[in-house]
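User: I'm writing a tutorial on reading structure tokens. Could you give me a worked example: one chain, its sequence, then its tokens, then a sentence or two explaining what the tokens reveal?
Assistant: Sure. Here is the example chain.
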Amino acid sequence: MVRTPLTPEERERGERLGRLLRQARGSRSMVEVAAAAGLSAETLRKIETGRAPTPAFFTVAALSATLGLSMDELVVHCAPVPVPAPGPAEAVA
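And here are its predicted structure tokens:
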């Protein structure tokens, strides 16, 4: 199966997710948090560094529960940045 390449927006969203998770992890070790969430430290490392920008929903849910983050917080911090619609003058040009 060929995987469709990620868009720049998807990669950026994955990087934002990784930064948020790393910040929430604080001084706890990657191994400790990964084990508590039921995944490998390597998987957590890939997510935190943006090398796995689209982790599975249940992986994100397990990490958010382990780190004390609500899914609402994740949405707010990791939602795509809206692109402003063109103004009337730009639409005509």
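What the tokens reveal: The chain is about 60% helix and 0% strand. The CA atoms of residues 18 and 48 lie 4 Å apart.
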